[in-house]
Amino acid sequence: MKSITVPATLEQLPHVQAFIEGELEANDCPMKAIMQISIAAEEIFVNIAHYAYHPDIGDATIRCQVGGDPLQVIIQFLDHGRPFNPLEREGPDTSLSAEDRDIGGLGILMVKKSMDQVEYAYEDGKNILTILKQM
Q1: Does residue 94 contact residue 76 with C-beta atoms inside 8 Å?
Q2: b or e along 74-112 (b: 16 or more beta carbons within 10 Å of the residue's beta carbon)?
Q3: pTM score over 0.85
Q4: What DSSP letter does each residue of the chain carry, written as one string?
Q5: Which residue, 125, 133, 114, 108, is CA-closest to 61?
Q6: Per-block average pLDDT, block size 10, for the chain (135 residues)?
Q7: Which of 40, 45, 54 is nearest to 77 (CA)?
Q8: How far apart, in whole angstroms, are the C-alpha atoms of residue 85 and residue 123?
Q9: Who is most buried in 60, 67, 70, 125, counting CB within 10 A?
Q10: CA–CA dist 92, 56 (Å, integer)
């Protein structure tokens, strides 16, 4: 599994996306899957940047593995920030208008709907969010 570690700041998002997209393109992933994974990764990394260490800054590690038959992509996001399982949060009520809805939750809902598997664990002082996409 290849990985990068960057400060968990919004300024690092282009580096994270370049790393992930580079791995996907190098393994001939379909463009539709690359776009879905890229958007999901952006949502997850932005949440880490905004909330994991606030108001301080810490590191985030992104691990990417592409392979198998059938081809699948596994990406893990690790941080040492506050323990937080986004999968436990109740999803937004999408039947309400945008004005009547509570803020937040749409990003992780989109991640859950676009990925084949999303898992969270808190181990050894680390948040670990794993997404999996089958090709």
Answers
A1: no
A2: bbbbbbebeebebeeeeebeeeeeeeeeeeebebbbebe
A3: yes
A4: -EEEEEESSGGGHHHHHHHHHHHHHHTT--HHHHHHHHHHHHHHHHHIIIIISTTS--EEEEEEEEETTTTEEEEEEEE-SS---GGGSPPP-TTS-TTTSPSS-HHHHHHHHHSSEEEEEEETTEEEEEEEEE-
A5: 125
A6: 97 98 96 96 95 95 95 97 84 48 59 94 97 95
A7: 45
A8: 12
A9: 60
A10: 28
User: What are 9's two structure tokens?
Assistant: 């700041």
C-alpha to C-alpha distance for 58 and 66, rounded to whole angstroms: 27
Six token digits for residue 58: 């810490």
Residues in a beta bridge with 103: none
